[in-house]
Specification:
Blueprint lengths: L19 H32 L12 H13 L7 H19 L5 H24 L2 H27 L19 E4 L2 E3 L8 H17 L8 H18 L2 H20 L4 H19 L2 H21 L1 H19 L16 H8 L10 H35 L6 H15 L5 H17 L13
Antiparallel strand pairs: 1-2
Length: 452
């Protein structure tokens, strides 16, 4: 059986023994906290736009108290593994805070805002991996499918409604709207999120579970699965997002690779293909879907032409953008400009407007904020952890478990080089990375060990 204990040279030095009963009692409130973090990630934007617009600014960090509480409780109960990845990231976060205050930009609030990513949010990956088990991942997957249906309906309303409509209201109740430039006069819908990037992240994340449950039909209501699948396919043109299109394609490739290893899955794949085909035929009969498809194709064609075709688009999105942003930061100070400076909040506090004070790319931002030594250390930690998890997820295929592998289809790139400066991107990275670890836990209440 492959679980996190079997990852060669992984993440920690030791296991800490706990009785099963004690562990269940200790983890019950922590599981609730993880669910709260997840739900706040999904509905944070809705609070900031529609229900509590006057509190839009403080609600930006509404998940932070939950993250801090979870990390502190896990630390008090000795649930954290002695991990070189975890310890390294926290140490870098603490050191970089002092460097930013005394040798960098000098703003305490900007430094704390940037450090919270490394000190509190990143450790949540290990919290989820320690507290959740595979059954918990299935439960959160079922909830995701239920959420996907109304989420697809919402972006349909946003797509066809004017920006002045209530469903398109912006942060703080902004009547100018939260949509972003799309194509053919239509705007990219933000769903329940603060910005359209949340739509792309959510449906990319949901695709992992939608495809998985076609191979585990006993655990999900089939009507819910059909509705979520319809919503997922409809979200591609309605979102006018090339990123979502490419990410769903990646998940499909991961699925095909899994089936190619296990011929027993071929029958289920055929069922999924037939089901998907029926849904696409049904969608093609709807004029609203065809209108959205025309807008998506127009956006895709225009943007691909600007970027030099499909090869240029994929190259820039997958690797090129991060590498170029990294190489453009070679002339940064050895200790960086200060943690937090490259975030939107940092730019607002330091420059008075949302702008890229350091770099737009994630790796470039990290090197610019922290300097080449600490910045590259953060990058190597992210890549190293992503590779270790990827190897463990691949090994799970040998025991006919494709759930971790499908979660990896979204989590691999997100963990290695996803944008942590933007709160929604950060939240989805933490959730999917933690769920990947938890999905490797085959037994309920099993605490994985992470060995060097």
């Amino acid at each position: 059986m492959v679980n996190i204990e079997n990852i060669n040279h992984t993440i920690s030095d030791s296991d800490k023994p706990y009785s099963s009963t004690k562990k269940v009692e200790a983890n019950k409130d922590l599981k609730t906290g993880i669910w709260i973090y997840f739900l706040l990630l999904i509905f944070e934007g809705a609070l900031r736009k529609w229900f509590l617009p006057s509190l839009a600014t403080p609600l930006l960090i509404i998940r932070d108290p939950v993250a801090i509480w979870l990390v502190i409780k896990c630390w008090q109960r000795g649930l954290f593994p002695a991990s070189i990845y975890l310890n390294g990231m926290i140490i870098i976060g603490i050191i970089s805070t002092f460097i930013a205050i005394f040798l960098g930009h000098g703003n305490l609030f900007v430094a704390l805002y940037g450090a919270r990513i490394l000190v509190f949010h990143f450790p949540l990956i290990f919290v989820i991996g320690q507290v959740f088990n595979r059954d918990d991942v299935i439960k959160i997957g079922i909830a995701t499918l239920w959420i996907t249906i109304p989420m697809a309906i919402l972006i349909t309303l946003q797509f066809y409604s004017p920006q002045s409509a209530w469903v398109n209201r912006g942060i703080g109740g902004d009547m100018a709207g939260a949509g972003y430039s799309g194509a053919n006069g239509f705007f990219r819908p933000p769903a329940t999120f603060s910005f359209t990037t949340g739509t792309t992240s959510y449906f990319s994340y949901a695709a992992c579970f939608v495809f998985y449950f076609w191979f585990d039909l006993k655990k999900i209501n089939k009507l819910v699965l059909l509705g979520a699948t319809l919503g997922l396919f409809a979200s591609i043109p309605l979102s006018i997002s090339r990123g979502l299109f490419f990410q769903i394609g990646v998940t499909l490739i991961f699925l095909v690779l899994a089936v190619s290893r296990k011929p027993k899955y071929v029958g289920k794949l055929l069922i999924a293909i037939i089901g998907g085909g029926i849904i696409l035929i049904a969608l093609s009969q709807l004029s609203l879907f065809n209108t959205a498809t025309d807008a998506f194709v127009s956006r895709f064609t225009t943007a691909s032409g600007t970027e030099g075709g499909l090869q240029g688009t994929l190259g820039n999105r997958a690797v090129g953008g991060s590498i170029s942003s990294l190489t453009s930061s070679v002339d940064q100070p050895i200790l960086g400009y200060g943690i937090g400076m490259g975030t939107n909040v940092g730019s607002m506090l330091l420059a008075g407007s949302k702008t890229f004070l350091i770099a737009e790319g994630e790796w470039g931002r990290e090197v610019g904020e922290l300097g080449p030594i600490l910045g590259l250390s953060v990058i190597f930690i992210r890549i190293g952890l992503a590779i270790k998890i990827a190897l463990a997820c691949y090994r799970k295929l040998s025991v006919n478990d494709i759930l971790p592998w499908l979660l990896l289809s979204f989590g691999l790139q997100t963990l290695a080089q996803g944008n942590w400066a933007q709160p929604t991107y950060l939240g989805f990275c933490i959730i999917i990375s933690g769920l990947m670890l938890a999905a490797l836990n085959s037994k309920p209440n099993h605490t994985p060990s992470f060995r060097k």
